[in-house]
């Protein structure tokens, strides 16, 4: 457990530091965040044509309300936490790649639902938007990460015992 905790902590610090580097922000995080805004707007337009996106902004053309997908809202931090936990856990490289790949997809699908819900909650009631955005959704997203990690653990092959079972004679 100490080994896992140490590796997990070192990976978290390293990955968050890398994420904050200007070249990573410019060439990876900002374009990714814009893509998340575009995908969110595309999904919203399936049932509401009064929405546009530009950069990291999703805006209602009907009432002008807009949300900006800021750092911490694009799902990258949640994926970093999941990746650090998966990499720190003793499992095969193949299982780790599967966990990070499918975890990324699941977390982003969940995050798209979060962004879309906040877009509509904000148009309905800004106080509830602030409360949901600052208190409810951050906890739910990290719970999502924990659930993905626990599901992955459940599907890992069982480690075989090194000792032979003893038989009574």
TrEMBL record:
One of its GO terms (molecular function) is peptidase activity. Keywords: Cell membrane, Hydrolase, Membrane, Protease, Transmembrane, Transmembrane helix. The keyword Membrane applies. One of its GO terms (biological process) is proteolysis. It comes from the Bacteria. It is a multi-pass membrane protein. The chain crosses the membrane at residues 75-93, 100-122, 134-153. This is Exosortase H, IPTLxxWG-CTERM-specific.
